[in-house]
Design brief:
By secondary structure, the protein is an alpha/beta fold. It has six helices and five strands, in the order αβαββααβαβα. The protein binds flavin mononucleotide. Belongs to the NrdI family.
């Protein structure tokens, strides 16, 4: 498995605590349509190493959004002294592999809010209004149109949610060959954010350590 860690925080994102203008994302992510962004193939050289350039700091603008943000599933422990350093937003299906991985990272203990995108269609929409890294399992069995779960597409189709995405982490199963973790390629291309990491199923202890440390570093290096 190629588990190249792209969370060195040197080149990718200006993650100032402002939403990015939604116009930076040229195409709405549809629930059925093929994304028009030319996503690199999973496992390709581009996937492994190329940072995805943003449209620049000039794209950062406050919005007039008055939606009440959702409450995190796990609230960052900051002892009341600091603001959270950032957030992780994740989706996990009924098999809960990603949920177990997220729990093992214990991100709330290192100052990161954790939000979960609801599984059930009737659930209240998740509204996130702080910089976040999105973690998404890949589905579709090799069909790129279905690689990103519908629930994640719905979440990102809300421009106010999309404005705060700063990076993506994907999971999958290497049995799917070139479609391994393809959801990360698609989201990175569409949202113009770096593809930070990928892992298989519930991840290893090393994956847990890298993601936990990497997310802290990713957000900390972008403060101020
Ligand atoms: C129907 C189905 C299709 C899948 N398609 C892919 C795929 O195209 N690429 C991939 O890397 N993993 C694929 N997977 C594997 C899932 O991404 C993996 O099991 C993941 O850990 C599921 O996370 P979750 O339990 O949090 O939903 C698929 C799994 C299922 C059940």
């Amino acid at each position: 498995m190629n588990d190249t860690l792209h969370m060195n925080g040197t080149t990718h994102v200006n993650a100032a605590a402002q939403p990015r203008r939604s116009a930076a994302v040229p195409m709405a992510m549809t629930e059925t349509g093929q994304p028009a962004g030319a996503a690199p193939q999973a496992g390709s050289a581009a996937h492994r190493s190329a940072p995805v350039p943003l449209h620049g700091a000039a794209a950062a603008q406050p919005t007039t959004d008055s939606t009440t943000p959702s409450t995190p599933e796990a609230v960052a422990r900051t002892d009341g002294r600091h603001a959270p350093i950032g957030a992780l937003v994740y989706f996990s299906s009924a098999s809960e592999n990603t949920a177990r991985f997220v729990a093992s990272c214990r991100l709330d203990e290192v100052g990161v809010n954790v939000y979960r995108i609801p599984l059930k269609p009737g659930a209240a929409q998740l509204n996130v209004r702080e910089p976040y890294v999105l973690m998404v399992p890949t589905y579709g069995g090799g069909d790129a149109k279905k690689a990103v779960p519908v629930q994640v597409k719905r979440f990102l189709n809300n421009p106010a949610n999309r404005a705060w995405i700063r990076g993506v982490i994907a999971s999958g199963n290497t049995n799917f060959g070139t479609a391994y973790c393809a959801a990360g390629d698609i989201i990175a291309a569409k949202c113009r954010v770096p593809y930070l990491y990928r892992f298989e199923l519930m991840g290893t202890r090393e994956d847990t350590r890298k993601v936990r440390d990497g997310i802290v570093r990713f957000f900390s290096e972008r403060r101020g």
